[in-house]
Amino acid sequence: MTFRRTSAPPPAAAAPATAGHHPAWLIGIAALWIASAGNLALWIALHRLQALDGLRGLGFGLGFGLGITALVVLLLALLAWRALLKPMLIFLLLAAAFGAHFMLSYGVVIDSTMMVNVAQTNLRETLDLFGLRLLLTVGLLGVLPVVVVWRTRLAWRPWPRQLRDNLLLLAGALVLLVGALAASFQPLASTLRNHKQVRYLVNPLNSLYAVGYVAAQPLRPGARVLLPLGEDATLAAPAPAATGAPTRPPLLVLVLGETARADHLTLNGYTRPTTPELAALGVASQRNAWACGTSTAASVPCMFSHLGREAFASRKSDHETLVDVLQRAGLAVLWLDNQAGCKGVCDRVPNVNTSGLKHPTLCPDGECHDLIVLEGLDERIAALPAERRARGVVLVVHQMGSHGPAYHKRSPQGFKRFLPECRSASLQDCSRDEVVNAYDNTIAYTDHVLARMIGWLTQRAERHDSALLYVSDHGESLGENNLYLHGLPYAVAPDTQKRVPWITWVSPAYAQRSGVTLACLQQRLDEPLSHDHLFHSVLGLMGVQTRVYRPEWDFYRACRQP
Q1: What are phi and psi of 280, to 5 degrees?
Q2: What is the distance between the alpha carbons of residues 141 and 66, in angstroms, rounded to a whole number?
Q3: Alpha-carbon separation of residue 150 from 77, 88, 90, 159, 393 (angstroms)
């Protein structure tokens, strides 16, 4: 038997290592991009503050930039795994690009209040913000680096070695952060102490912090509990009419204005004729009224609260609001909203949203102008319980008002008194005169809407003793110091975002009923008041008696004659 010797097959060749860059390389490049190009708004703001002037300023800027880089690396070092790194990088780059656009274009900052505004913005308001400038900014600062990230091949190691590398990267970032802070601590501390808005410009860490803060709010003690308010609320007996005639139930229209600033009303000394119809009606316009927030999401819950701005900001639990107390006292309450919503204030009272109604002239392009609230209003009131209507009616009207940046959409064609007006959502594409023209047209239209509401009340004089109160939720920046829109933190916001109109009209019958006369109010036009007074002032006007009423916060009490 012959044995044939066969040679063993050659060993299989080892698979070549995957070619690519180490993940730390991509993390470092992306972090440097975010700290530099993604933070253009921050560097421009520091330049305007002269914080970067001279060698000392350059050293501060370098240390601040390296500190931001180190913070981004710290975050990404925790996520440097095959399935997580690229999605997180893409998210951060796009978030930085969008944040940079809004901070550069409108001068806003990103904090928790701004994030709440973003979450509560509806699709129509969101579309108003889109434009060519947004596409260019996001394309250059976001989409291009995202493409680079997506196409970059990375060399991933087995998980024990990858964990070791991630820990080394984390330690290196900590060392860099400590060194950067030590090198720039004094100028950094001084800048953040004297210019608090700078801390809200660190992009996209500002957005991450704001999202986390808002997301954690439901977890705070008492956050899910809505405490009842004014359970003892009752209506005071009306004084008998001087003529001996039967008294009529009161009807108050409380108009919640949107984004109106006090210094653009002719009633308050503005040189342009923005409020001629109200002036002819002899209303009282307080010139020194202040908001409790700089955005709708912050102001509306605060102004309907009994707490006042400072106590509301530090509250541990949520309470019912002014409309709840009015309803508990036995009044018929109806909330009419021509906006994106009432921010939870009207959830427990009858409410109607008119912003999506169909009307051939009042609702062009899917958005309704504010006069829509008068359509079918008598029928809406008649649907309220009769026993409540017999005691009195409170209508709360939440306007679209002067909501920006698309101011030109807020006024009908026939009310464009000031031309040419800005017709772009990117306000920096227009001259400041065009921006102001578009904004002033919205104030002029609000003047007409309020005058029509007063006319509607006058026509019902045989059935109701009527009054109207108009208060805006916050003001607006129109390009002063390169600031647009609103929403800056209250401590650093300019007065244009905080000083608001407060207008009162009372019929002769209501003046006799309540004792509040326009002649008295006209003598108090410059007295300071704020949203803190609204809750208690409305209770006083409607004769609601409750332990939560504070007479010292009732603005009308000084004019209420016995």
Answers
A1: -70, -20
A2: 19
A3: 18, 11, 8, 22, 60
Q: What number is the average pLDDT over the span 6-18?
A: 46
93/36 Cα distance (integer angstroms): 12
- The per-residue pLDDT for range 533-544, each reduced to its tens digit, is 999 999 999 999
Whether 301 shows a pLDDT value over 90: the answer reads yes
Q: What is the pLDDT of residues 195-252, one digit of tens each?
A: 888 888 999 998 888 888 877 776 666 556 789 999 999 998 765 555 455 579 999 9
Report d(CA 493, CA 496) in Å as an integer.
8
* 415 backbone dihedrals φ, ψ, rounded to 5°: -115, 15
Overall average pLDDT of the 307-333 stretch: 94
DSSP 217: G
Whether residue 252 contacts residue 332, with contact meaning beta carbons closer than 8 Å, is answered with no
Lowest mean pLDDT among 178-187, 222-231, 341-350: 222-231
Residue 239 and residue 48: Cα distance in Å, rounded?
61
Q: What's residue 367's pLDDT?
A: 87
CA dist 29 and 42 (Å) reads 19
* Residues sharing a CB contact under 8 Å with residue 264, sequence separation 6 or more, in sequence order: 270, 272, 274, 439, 440, 443
Pair of tokens at residue 275: 């409020």
Taking the mean position of all CA atoms in its chain, how far away is CA 77?
34
Cα 558 to Cα 560: distance, rounded to the nearest angstrom:
6
Residue 82 has pLDDT above 80, yes or no: yes
Given CA atoms 55, 56, 57, 60 in this order, what sign does their dihedral have?
positive
DSSP 524-544: TTTS-EEGGGHHHHHHHHHTE
Q: Does the pLDDT value for residue 443 go beyond 90?
A: yes
For residue 95, what are the contacts with CB-CB under 8 A and spacing of at least 6?
Answer: 203, 204, 207, 208
Tell me the C-alpha to C-alpha distance, in Å, between residue 223 and each of 209, 215, 345: 19, 12, 15
Overall pTM > 0.90: no
Residues forming a β-bridge with 234: 545
Asked if 290 contacts 261 with a C-beta cutoff of 8 angstroms, the reply is no
User: Which tokens go with 265?
Assistant: 């009303």
Dump the DSSP string for 1-21: -PPPP-PPPPPPPPPPPPP-B
Q: What is the structure's pLDDT at 13?
A: 44
Mean pLDDT of 366-374: 92
Name the 3-class secondary structure at 60: helix
Amino acid at 176: L
Is residue 562's pLDDT more than 60?
Answer: no
For the cut 50, the answer to whether the pLDDT of residue 1 exceeds it is no
Other CB atoms closer than 10 Å to residue 556's CB: what's the count? 22
Identify the DSSP state of 357: -
pLDDT at 170 exceeding the cut of 60: yes
Q: Which residue has the tokens 């006209």?
A: 522
Q: Which long-range contacts (CB under 8 A, 24 or more apart) does 437-440 make?
A: 438/407, 438/408, 439/264, 439/402, 439/404, 439/407, 439/476, 439/478, 440/264, 440/272, 440/274
Q: How far is CA 550 from the centre of its chain?
A: 28
